[in-house]
Amino acid sequence: MAQPQTHTIQATVPAVFTQTLAVQDQDMRNLYEKAKRDQWNASRDIDWSLDLDPQHGILPDGLIDIYGTPYWERLSPTQRNELNRHFSAWRISQLMYGEEFALLVCSQIANIVPGIDAKFFMATQVVDEARHAEVLARYIHEKIGIVYPLTSSLKQLFDQILSMPQWYLKTVGTQLVAETLAVSLFRMLADHSQEATIRAICKRILADESRHMGFGMLSLPEQIAALSERERREVEDFACEAASGLLRGQFPREAYEAVGFSTADIEDIKRLRLEIAQKSEYVAFRKYFKKDFHASLWNNLARVGLLSDYTVEKLAAMGITAPQQSAAAA
């Protein structure tokens, strides 16, 4: 049976119509000015003439779960490239859905957030996220030719965030958690992918993402400081739960099925994957990715005022520690 093409989330958010349009937050207005200045066009500014090299993959092989295991060693070079192609299609498909989700949630935040400067900036982020979804969809359809469905774990997180009424919870879930993970993967692709087109796409996306992170850094600290103890604990719990869900729930079963791995093989691969994670015996690329995501998440939570003793304890249970501790353990 074909996967459903749409699903509907029951989401009601307040629309705050401000009649004060003069500049109130100069830093946020400056971010809006940068967003206007740095717009780009995926049709014009990406070279779509390059073809994929069938002899090379897209993602670094080291990001594939079975790399370095007996399952990898038994594959021929052709089979490894085919697995890389499917694994990359699966991963980039999830990034594509993430950008569409960000488009939807940012349109909600533009309604809810009270200040006009934040509304102006959030309108530019809606455009950014539409462009990111567009460019990734075009890459998947035109270059790879394989599209994978949205994972159940991402769907659950996205639906939860879209149904929340508070703009600051949406911002924490989107800018501080989901986009922090996405940025680490975009950075990995931009720096280490063997494929020129996706490198160029990710470099463009990363330039936009730095502004998106800026919105959270400017808008959240004052809001977090004004919350009651109960409300703050709610935000801390949600940030940690969202991070945990992203770390646990991303396994490309469909990609392994597509290249002929049996159900028994796939279950064993999941077991090996968990053992490697628990021992932190990652290959170089995965160590780099893990270190980048953990350090960025830690620092972002600290900058907005969400790195309490309570949060530190919950992060530690997920294996996320202060960046200097992570560096010492690497």
Describe this structure in words.
The protein is mainly α and 330 residues long. It has one domain (27-329): Ribonucleotide Reductase, subunit A (Orthogonal Bundle), CATH 1.10.620. It has 14 helices and no strands. It has helices spanning 26-37, 42-45, 70-73, 77-112, 116-144, 152-163, 167-192, 196-225, 229-248, 253-258, 263-279, 284-304, 309-317, 323-329. Helix 7 runs antiparallel to helix 8 and helix 7 (167-192) runs antiparallel to helix 12 (284-304). The longest helix is centred in the N-terminal third of the chain and has 36 residues, at 77-112. The protein is globular.
Summarize the model shown.
With 330 residues, the protein is mainly α. Helices cover 71% and strands 0% of the residues.
